[in-house]
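Q: Focus on the shape:
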Amino acid sequence: MPTLYTMPGTCSLSPNIALAWLDAPVEVNTMAYGDHKKDAYLAINDKGKVPALRFDDGDVLTEAAAILAWLGAEHGSDTFGRDTVLGRKEAEALSYMTSEVHAVYGGHFGPQNFAESDSAIEEVKRKTYEKLDGHYKRMNDILNENGGEWYLGKRSFADTFLYVLCRWIDQTPLSYDDYPALKQHMSNMEADAGVQLALKRQKMKPIG
């Protein structure tokens, strides 16, 4: 049976939720924070990041979007199919969330990687939150335009990663009140049995 490696507080929650929605035969291994930098895990994923999906033959797939794509192709129904309009839009949304929005968080989680002086680090943080605010407003508008319940109008894996991004707002100076549709989406997700299962497996608690 394949194994999904996760860690509390990380974007690995997204494929974890997808597993729960699909009831896919994949084991979830939630590591303690810090274990991702130890030799045992580095032998699985030398990038030292989660998620990683290890198959029975030893092959390893990393990156949340890639793992979600495999799950959709291998275990998905029409809802998560690739060869549909929803599937194409799902791939687009996940690419945007993982490569653009998630990437901006580098200035929040590790501003010292972009600057050295205290004043420069504060400038990095300020620009980071400006960029994040723009992304969240854009996603809030898209969610509203598609009916407000699901990011693409129907449930998709995009909702799993959006939920992760919404949880991270709580760690920034940004306010949920500025993104009411996203705030409601997070509440709806936390009422979902699959999300609750994934949170429990990953030793995390709801935000709302």
Remarks:
- Strands lie at 3-6, 27-30, 52-54, 60-62.
- The chain has a mean pLDDT of 94.
- The chain is about 50% helix and 5% strand.
- Residues 118-145 form the longest helix (28 residues).
